[in-house]
Amino acid sequence: xxxxxxxxxxxxxxxxxxxxxxxxxxxxxxxxxxxxxxxxxxxxxxxxxxxxxxxxxxxxxxxxxxxxxxxxxxxxxxxxxxxxxxxxxxxxxxxxxxxxxxxxxxxxxxxxxxxxxx
Length: 118
Known about the structure:
The chain has helices spanning 2-17, 29-35, 45-48, 57-61, and strands spanning 22-27, 50-51, 68-70, 77-79, 88-89, 92-101, 105-110. By secondary structure, the protein is α+β, with helices and mostly antiparallel strands. The strands form two sheets. It has a five-stranded mixed β-sheet with strand order 2-1-7-6-5. Strands 3-4 form a two-stranded antiparallel sheet. The chain is globular, with a radius of gyration of 14 Å. InterPro entries: FAS1_dom_sf, FAS1_domain, Fasciclin-like_AGP. This is FAS1 domain-containing protein. Residues 1-118 form the FAS1 domain.
């Protein structure tokens, strides 16, 4: 449920406020619930889970392993850490590919939050 609320909220945000193409990586419900009682959430967490281009799961899989993708966090990237049998980003499985696709953005569910590098 929490994942659905985040997707719906971000959908409205992107459609109404932001005119960029983007891909969002949204953690599973358990990862989101772990955050709900924390007051020290890193303000870089959300921008680090968004890349400024729309990529479907098939498009993501076309990247070579160790390729990097820019994020909305300046000078920080996400790395494709896939193997022939498993597709991962930052060593995190995409558990729900293509949760939502539109002409301007894509949303993929991930196993857990990506740790924000220092």
